[in-house]
Amino acid sequence: MLKYFRVTAVVLAMVLIVTGCTAQQKTSANTTAATTTMTSATTGSQSPASVSGLESAIEAVYAAANPSVVNIQVLLAATSTSPGGAALGSGFVWDTQGDIVTNNHVIDGATRITVTFYDGTIVDATLVGTDVDSDLAVIKVSANTALLKPVTMADSTQVQVGQLAVAIGNPFGFQGTMTVGFISGIGRLLPSNLNATGPSYSIPDVIQTDASINPGNSGGILLDSAAKVLGVTQSIESTSGSSSGVGFAIPSAIVKQVVPALISTGHYTHPYLGISASSLNPDINAAMNLPADQRGALVQTVTSGGPADKAGLKASANQTTINGQSVPIGGDVIVAFNGQAVRSSDDLITFLARSGSVGQTVTLTILRNGSQTQLSVTLGARPNS
């Protein structure tokens, strides 16, 4: 049975092996070499020179990015469900003011946070802000400015399956570990808070990679061939709790929205429609007398008093049985968000996260009883999970 694991390592006996590289190298020429090598490989004409070019490109990625990656160690308070203890994860330098980004689950419940830089320097950190729903957090250190080497962020909305992917972090406490693979999937949807007691939400647009990710990699970086950050390594799908070749990273597009707010205010307010929705499929379409190939997000429920309710969006009031399961039908079908085609409920969540903001009025194109119309919805603030 597959299980979804977040990859913070719980420490019983913690031994750190510091292997950081201090060299800074430009990556543009080596990126070209990597591209040439990949092309040669696909045509079956790989040569020793092309292998050497790929190795040089990957070495340059590591040299450029590794000094920005830190090892994070936390002491955890005992609770009614946990004995406390120590854990570790990864993080990366965001700016020259000492702000460091990691996963929220790395530092959640910490009574003390310490950061180890690539050269072995250890400093204490304080918590700046957290966002459970994107699983991101910012901590702050006071350190020599020579150690504060900010990463460069990529545009994750442009990532493609098949691109080179390089992960750097601290699996099992082995500092400065690099693994290499490819982008193996995009647009994944993962639960944001595994311990939610209230409403539950999802992180959209998640990047999947086969670059090895293991406990301790949480909060580290997933890079492209230009040493730019595509995402923050966060979790794996596995039967054992260790890498199975299916790892996930929170996309840079979300990181670039959330982190500045955490630094300035300590929190991030997510936009909110106030609905639950499912993707249309041929069975639901038949039950609703829609074309078999109709795509969109079927509104299942509408939260009373929420933005969608105020705008007049209609929930599914009827039920049908599909494959022995009762399925809600009859609600509005959202087919566009501000002019962007919505082909599934995942699309709707992604567009809301990427381009929505609290107080913004957006236009939803819907199908209601087979006819297309538009509704204006003023987005609210998402309740806490």
Task: Describe what you observe in this structure.
There is one protein chain. This protein has 385 residues and is α+β, with helices and mostly antiparallel strands. The protein has 2 domains: 1-268, Thrombin, subunit H (Beta Barrel); 271-381, Roll (Pdz3 Domain). It contains 7 helices and 24 strands. The strands form 5 sheets. Strands 9-10-11-14-13-12 form a 6-stranded antiparallel β-barrel. The chain has a 6-stranded antiparallel barrel with strand order 3-4-5-8-7-6. Strands 16, 17, 20, 21, 22 and 23 form a 6-stranded antiparallel β-sheet that branches. The radius of gyration is 23 Å and the shape is globular. The two termini are 27 Å apart. Residues 10-29 and 35-43 have low confidence and may be disordered.
Taking all Cα atoms into account, the compactness measure Rg is: 23 Å
Strand order of the largest sheet: 9-10-11-14-13-12
Overall tally of structural domains: 2
Task: Estimate percent helicity.
Answer: 10-25%
Strand content: 35-45%
Annotated CATH architecture of the largest domain: Beta Barrel
State the CATH topology of the largest domain: Thrombin, subunit H
Helix count, per DSSP?
Answer: 7
The level-1 CATH class of the largest domain: Mainly Beta
Largest sheet: 6 strands, antiparallel, barrel
Overall shape: globular
* Strand runs, count: 24
Mean pLDDT: 88
**End-to-end CA span:** 27 Å
**Unreliable segments (pLDDT under 50, ≥5 consecutive)?**
10-29, 35-43
Structural class: alpha+beta
Layout: helices, strands, pairs:
Elements: E1 3-6, E2 9-11, H1 28-42, H2 48-65, E3 69-76, E4 85-93, E5 99-102, H3 104-107, E6 110-116, E7 122-131, E8 136-141, E9 164-169, E10 177-191, E11 202-209, E12 221-223, E13 229-238, E14 247-251, H4 252-265, E15 271-272, E16 275-279, H5 282-287, E17 297-302, H6 307-311, E18 318-322, E19 325-329, E20 333-337, E21 340-341, H7 345-355, E22 361-368, E23 371-378, E24 380-381
